[in-house]
Here is the input.
Amino acid sequence: MSDLPPLSAKSAPSARVFSRLPEYTRIPTAGGRCPITGLSRSSVLKLIYASAENGHKPPVRSFALKKKGGFRGARLISVASLIDYIESHGAEGSKGGSS
Here is the structure.
């Protein structure tokens, strides 16, 4: 038996998962899914870009990494922010709310 105190159900999975996940991930390729969450590309895009659907305040943090003065770059998504968003909506759904 372990001498460690039991972890709470709320914090245990996140602490273990975050230790093995990258800090950032890229937008899935067209027709692909996020390798971490399994969300489709269109679902991820809805979460990271401002739109009327999300009140012009994206719920998931992301940023464009590009060279100074460049037009193209890589959009990086905060994995912690993405998982926090998913977990917060999972908690709402388990309280009897509609999805």
In short: Strands lie at 24-26, 62-65, 74-78.
